[in-house]
């Protein structure tokens, strides 16, 4: 099997991979996306997108596909399971683009992104086997070998292959850290309608936290997060067992309204997973790129879901990476290995501290909300939910725009970098 040459190869057809391919397409650069699965990866059922994500989707030209389907959620209620007290909080105030917080189906987001790419841009059943580099034009190019024997030579290689990234491991980034917590996620189905308001609901107890958010008038996304000491490490991939454990063990003391949502779950949507992250200092000081090879999304900055920023940050990555590569492409009338290596270095500098702060904020948010001591509960209810929650969950970070290819001029420079 001979060697095939590509401008850019992206490993992984998740949120980061597809969004990065779109960003590159917008600036005139073709990318080939390699996906080891037989289709788009939809584990996780749904995700929340905050204003910063919608600004990124605006830059990619995709946001209108989703905002016409999903209604914004502007407030939520937090119930203390032990005391029964309820706090109302504000979330998702509108951003400059007019889009506040919305919870969307993961599949819908992935399909909206995939529709923007040519049919031959995604190659399924393509599992990465090894990576090598080859000197060229004062820099290097990547030689990618797949398990089916195919060999691809690429001027740029971007690993968007998730928390267990092969590309991140090749770069030498540190192994993941187990947060000591796990999460169950699922979709509840109500064919006749669930009758809930368009509000987020959260339930907190010592060492446990759960929540639900309506997606449509017939579907509700729900989650449950627990500490590993609760028996999470014994869970299997059996969806019926997962549902039963949540109802009879983990959420036994939770309100009947929450357990009714769990009972209506589509079993095919249920998943259990440990919550992993990378130490923020490993992102700040670690090897996030080497020449023309880098990572984006969870491959760079896996974080716990406690700020709901994993997918949002991946979309930001795509725009920032697309802008830096696009500027180099436009200015040099093509992808020159030495110049694009500088562009990738610029992307890494722009993302290190931003994503390290999100990792830190996410971990601390989870730690505070599931703390068990008396002072921690008081801090959570009075300070975190009372004063900090709205500031943390109304995120207006603007990752900027993409350069204009048609005019050959760099328009819409980032407000941040």
UniProtKB/TrEMBL annotation:
The keyword Oxidoreductase applies. It comes from the Eukaryota. Residues 7-327 form the FAD-binding domain. The keyword Oxidoreductase applies. One of its GO terms (molecular function) is monooxygenase activity. Keywords: Monooxygenase, Oxidoreductase. Coiled coil: none annotated. InterPro entries: FAD-bd, FAD/NAD-bd_sf, MOase. Belongs to the 3-hydroxybenzoate 6-hydroxylase family. This is FAD-binding domain-containing protein.
């Amino acid at each position: 099997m001979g060697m095939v040459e590509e401008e850019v190869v992206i490993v992984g057809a998740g949120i980061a991979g597809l969004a990065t391919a779109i960003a590159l397409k917008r600036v005139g650069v073709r990318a080939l996306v390699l996906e080891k699965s037989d289709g788009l990866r939809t584990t996780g059922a749904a995700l929340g997108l905050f204003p910063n994500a919608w600004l990124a989707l605006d830059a990619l030209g995709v946001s209108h596909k989703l905002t016409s389907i999903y209604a914004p959620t502007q407030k939520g209620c937090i119930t203390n399971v032990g005391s029964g007290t309820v706090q109302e909080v504000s979330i998702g105030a509108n951003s400059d683009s007019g889009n506040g917080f919305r919870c969307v189906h993961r599949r819908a987001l992935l399909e909206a992104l995939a529709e923007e790419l040519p049919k031959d841009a995604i190659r399924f059943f393509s599992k990465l086997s090894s990576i090598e580099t080859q000197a060229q034009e004062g820099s290097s190019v990547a030689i990618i070998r797949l398990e089916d024997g195919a060999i691809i030579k690429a001027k740029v290689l971007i690993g968007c292959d998730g928390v267990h990234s092969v590309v991140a491991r090749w770069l030498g980034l540190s192994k993941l850290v187990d947060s000591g917590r796990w999460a169950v996620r699922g979709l509840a189905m109500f064919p006749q309608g669930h009758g809930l308001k368009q509000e987020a609901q959260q339930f907190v107890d010592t060492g446990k936290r759960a929540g639900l958010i309506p997606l449509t008038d017939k579907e509700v996304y729900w989650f449950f997060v627990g500490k590993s000491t609760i028996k999470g490490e014994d869970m299997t991939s059996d969806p019926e067992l997962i549902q039963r454990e949540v109802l009879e063990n983990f959420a036994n003391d939770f309100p009947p309204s929450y357990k009714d949502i769990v009972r209506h779950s589509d079993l095919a949507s249920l998943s259990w997973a440990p919550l992993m992250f990378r130490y923020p200092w490993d992102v700040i000081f670690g090897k996030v790129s080497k020449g023309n090879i880098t990572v984006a999304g969870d491959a760079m900055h896996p974080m716990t879901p406690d700020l709901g920023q994993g997918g949002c940050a991946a979309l930001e990555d795509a725009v920032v990476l697309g802008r830096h590569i696009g500027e180099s492409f436009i200015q040099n009338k093509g992808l020159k290995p030495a110049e694009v290596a500088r562009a990738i270095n610029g992307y890494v500098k722009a993302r290190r501290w931003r994503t390290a702060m999100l990792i830190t904020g996410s971990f601390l948010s989870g730690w505070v909300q599931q703390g068990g001591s008396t002072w921690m509960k008081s801090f959570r209810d009075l300070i975190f939910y009372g004063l900090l929650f709205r500031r943390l969950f109304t995120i207006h970070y603007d990752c900027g725009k993409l350069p204009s290819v048609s005019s050959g001029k760099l328009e819409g420079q980032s407000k941040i970098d």
